[in-house]
Structure formats: structure tokens, C-alpha cells
Amino acid sequence: MPPETDHSAPVTIACIQFEPKIGELAANLEAIETRVRQAHANGARLIVLPELADSGYVFDSAEELADLAQPIPEGISAQRLIALAAELGIHIVSGLAEAADGGFYNSAMLCGPEGYIGTYRKMHLWYRENLFFRKGDLGLPVFDTPLGKIGIAICYDGWFPETFRQLAINGAEVICVPTNWVPMPDQDPQTEAMSNILHKAAAHSNGLFIACADRVGTERGQPFIGQSLIIDATGWPLAGPASREDEDILYAQITPADVPAKRKLNEFNDIFGDRRTDVYS
User: Fold this and answer.
1) Which of 112, 142, 144, 198 holds its CA 20 to 30 A away from the CA of 208?
2) What CATH number was assigned to the domain covering residues 11-262?
3) Exactly one of 19, 129, 149, 155 is catalytic; which is it?
4) For residue 4, is pLDDT > 60?
5) Structure pTM?
6) Does residue 212 have an active-site annotation?
7) Count of CA atoms in the C-beta half-sphere (13 A) of 67
8) Where are the domains of the chain?
9) 276 Cα distance to chain centroid
10) Does 51 participate in catalysis according to the annotation?
11) Is 149 among the catalytic positions?
């Protein structure tokens, strides 16, 4: 990791909500680049893209995934994003289908103006992902960047409080969440999405900025719910939820160095400091 950096400057973060097309790698990368350039032109310095943004999500077979997955950072998708981040002088977090060690991971890559920074591999696999991907084996890394200390989670990882707690303990200030949220069982589709409830709660209870970039559309019969969201470290939304059906780009300004102050609820209570680690197992 790079040396300690000053995170006191405000940062404009953008979440890109779009509709990747299954198997259309070149078209997806073109769509990503167009939207990243638009977000950069609007001042974004940290840009978050959806889960498996380069490949699409609903694979028919392992053979189909094998044709699309690539190594990180050497693969076509990773190199395209790395070059784009370097050209524009920005940081990008994108979900990518990763080929590694003779298998596949549902991964996300962080890159910046100086190139490749790191990879996170999704730990909690959802539904048919278990047929194609290995469970992530890189833990929950936190990357110290000039913008702030960045952690990454992917979609179903957000259903586990331990994900955000561990990232917070590891020093994260901002969590980027590439995701492909789907409808939850028994939920009225007109009410607030469970995904948004969970991530607002995680932001509040850990004092973290959280930026969730979802996709939209229906792929091979599977609908996705959109509603991307950028959340303050207090738990209240800064931008979004975005549309349930339409492509969108959300923007918000955050200051990662504000995390310690935002964790203080009053003169007696600190949402992180009040933890009873003497009794927690």
C-alpha cells in the first residue's frame, strides 16, 4: 500500500448505474468509458461501477464465463480501466469477472492515476454464482489512496454486518460497492429496497461513507432493481436512490477525514468508540 496520505480534501464521488449486456465485452467497455468520461467531466474523482460490469451477470455455463473472465490486472477489461484512470487522473472501482488460479472470481478492481492499486474478491456468493465462482480469498483489504482509505464490498456482502465492521476496524473511510441487486423475497416492490436499508444502517453503525453502484434491466429473465445510492457516514443518503429502471449517474461530495467527527453522536457517545469489545466474542 502507498504511504499515509492526507484525506482532508473534499472528493466528488460518482456511482454509475447502467445496463451491461451479457457476453458483450467490447460494448460494455465502450459504455463504461463513455459514462466514466461523463462523470469525470462533471467533477468526479472517484467513480464506482456495477458488479460484473464488463461481462454481464446471468451466465448459462462455466464455458460462457471462461470466454469472458480475464486476469486482473493483465486482462483486457482491467487494462482498459487502468488506462482510463491514468488518462483522466481519477480513481475507478469496477466489478469484473476475474480468471485466476484455474478458476473464476466475482471481483472488483481499484485503479488510479498511477495505475493498478488492488483487487477484492466477493466473499459471499449469491444464488447461482455458487455454480461458477470461487468464494473470495483475499479478505477485506483497505487501500490507502490520496482520496481516502477505500474498502470494497460486492452486492450480497452487504447482507453481513461483519463485512462493514471489519472494513471499519481495518481503517476504511469509504466503502465502494459494485452491485447487481435483485428483488428480495416477500418485499413489496414499491417500498424502500432492503439493500438500501441495510447499507444505510451499515454506514450509520460504522461511521462510513458507502457508495453503491447498481445495474438496471432484465437479463435472461432476471430483473435488477437499480436504486443506486451514496450514503453519508451518518447513515443518511447524500444522493439517490436512483431510478428503479433507468440508467443514471449519482454524484456526491464527501470528505473522508470527517469520519471520526461523524462517528461522534454527542459529547458522551461515539458510534465506534462505544463498542464493548471486552464482551463481544
Assistant:
1) 112
2) 3.60.110.10
3) 155
4) no
5) 0.96
6) no
7) 11
8) 11-262
9) 29
10) yes
11) no
